[in-house]
Amino acid sequence: MSSTFKIYILAVLSFLVGTSEYVIAGILDKIAMSTGVSLVTAGQLITVFSLAYAFGTPLVMVMTARMERKKLLLTAIGFFVLSNVLAYVLPGIGLLNLSRIMMGISAGVVVVVSMTIATKVARPGKEGSALAAVLMGFTASLIFGVPLGRIMATTYEWKAVFGVIALLGFAAIFLIALLIPRIQGEAAVSLRKQVALLKEPRVMIALSVTFFWIIGYSIFYSYITPFLLTSVGMHDSTLNTILFVIGIASLIGSRSGGYATDKWGLHRVLKTGLGLNAIALILIAFGAHAPVLLIVMLILWSIAVWSLGPPQQLHIINISPESTGIMLSLNSMVLQLAMAAGAGVGGLVVERISLSAITWFAAAAIVLAFGAVNLSQRKNN
Known about the structure:
By secondary structure, this protein is mainly alpha-helical. The protein has 2 domains: 1-188, MFS general substrate transporter like domains (Growth Hormone, Chain: A), CATH 1.20.1250; 189-381, MFS general substrate transporter like domains (Growth Hormone, Chain: A, Up-down Bundle). Helices cover 85% and strands 0% of the residues. It contains 15 helices and no strands. The chain has helices at residues 3-35, 39-63, 69-89, 93-121, 127-155, 159-179, 191-196, 201-221, 224-231, 236-264, 266-286, 291-307, 309-319, 324-352, 358-380. The longest helix has 33 residues, at 3-35. The radius of gyration is 20 Å and the shape is globular. The termini are far apart. The relative contact order is 0.14. It is a multi-pass membrane protein.
């Protein structure tokens, strides 16, 4: 079996766990309605997943550092499948939150181990492409997973989304068991060593770019479905199309961000992307009742948001090239914490101000990220 096919299997697995994280944003209103809770309470499902991912994944990876990688991956998929089964069968928002905690931890481990295995099974010199393929699966969950989840929840019920993810995850267990070779574990990197870098100002400033950028993204995207349905008055059928278009735009943004970084440098791309991001959010607020402007700005927003991924990853690596693995691990943790914080801030804005105000708070977070980029650039000159 070719190494390319094995990597594609890992990419599909990444797509499944990415869908489990992002799909809540597409079905938030339906979960709130069926469980009898507010949008803010339902939005906590995003927060608990991200917190579990951020704190649980590093702990599990440290504790299982010496475990054979294929065995660890199969175990993580098993818990991931179980968590989706629990989300499908258990009643009430409280038990759903518990399933999301298990889902977040297991999803994080699946992604990290999948990337590790991908680099091991790839042909020599193709490790970067292997990593990109696995990460592309995560991006594809925005393009296809979220709108498909919305369509499924509209046609059947929202719980069906988790049932299907569980079935596909169960099938993945057999494919992984049959096709992925055994790969030995590695020496553990202590949590103390991981957090020691946080004492360095340059590292903290670089990570703050990720933190504020993702908070801005999460504030808006966590509540994008009720925003478009309620504040904008969009029809359900139109929403499905818009979610799909936004997903395609995210892929374009990621590709263009990588190309632009190579051509113009990471700081220029970060500033341009953040600037366009803030402008798009403000124009979305003003153009909520102008359909053409709204759609154009949503596309611009999605492209701008995801164009920041490649330059920020390079930014993080360049801050401490001798500690690339630890820096990327810390960046991943900060990203998930920001996802949780953004969903929480968005919930407070919806509850205490208004649903339409989320774009302004998202834009404010992006402005802070822009300031962090400027500060980081000065520190490195």
